[in-house]
Amino acid sequence: MYERLLWRFGTALNSATIAGPTGGRRTSIRPSPTRQRPAGRPPESGNAAPETARRARIGARFVRAFAAVSLLLLGTLAIALPAQSQTVPSAPQELTAEASAGRVDLSWSAPADDGGSDIQRYEIRYAKGATVPENANWIPVGSGTASALTGLSNSEPYTFEVRAVNGEGAGDVARTQATPGSPPTAPQDLSAAPDDTQVVLSWSAPADNYNSDIVRYEVRHVAGASVPEETAWTSVGLVTTHTVTGLTNETQHTFEVRAVNGRGGGAAAQIQATPGPLPSAPREFAIARHSGDVVLSWSTPADDGGSDIVRYEVRHAKGASVPANTAWTGVIRNNIRFDSLESAELYTFEVRAVNEWGAGDVARIQLALGSPPTAPQDLSAAPDDTQVVLSW
Question: Which residues, in sequence order, are CB contacts of 332 under 8 Å at separation 6+?
Answer without folding.
Answer: 311, 312
